[in-house]
Specification:
Helix content is 38%, strand content 16%. The protein is of the alpha/beta class and 112 residues long. The longest helix is centred in the C-terminal third of the chain and has 13 residues. The radius of gyration is 15 Å and the shape is globular. The model has no long low-confidence stretch (mean pLDDT 86).
């Protein structure tokens, strides 16, 4: 049996879990509330989103924070597919978009 690379091992260990990071939707929303209301058409970037639970929580609470559009990035495409499906099913597909991208080389302009 060949040894697994770190990314394969990580994704196998976390497969099927609802969240691949500490915290919760409540934690995400509590922290967001500290920022107050956002300008309409705010754009957020969720880097290393995993299955996107933070993105979904923020998109669902957009009425509280202001109109928001989220780009969620991750290297593991199955996470992004899971997030896209969850966003569509929950009616948030117009607010959450996904993109395959590495944290260390994001395809966005600095300070965008």
């Amino acid at each position: 049996m060949a040894p697994m690379d770190a990314i394969s091992l990580f994704t196998e260990l976390h497969a099927g879990l609802p969240r691949q990071a500490p915290g919760s939707a409540d934690t995400t929303l509590t922290l967001a509330r500290l920022l107050g209301r956002w300008p309409d058409n705010s754009r957020l970037l969720d880097i290393g989103c995993g299955p996107g639970r933070a993105s979904l929580a923020l998109a669902a609470a957009a009425d509280e924070f202001g109109d928001v559009h989220i780009t969620a990035t991750d290297l593991h495409e199955p996470y992004l597919e899971e997030l896209s499906t969850a966003a569509e099913v929950s009616g948030l597909g117009d607010r959450v978009k996904t993109q395959v991208a590495a944290m260390q080389s994001l395809p966005f302009d600095d300070e965008s």
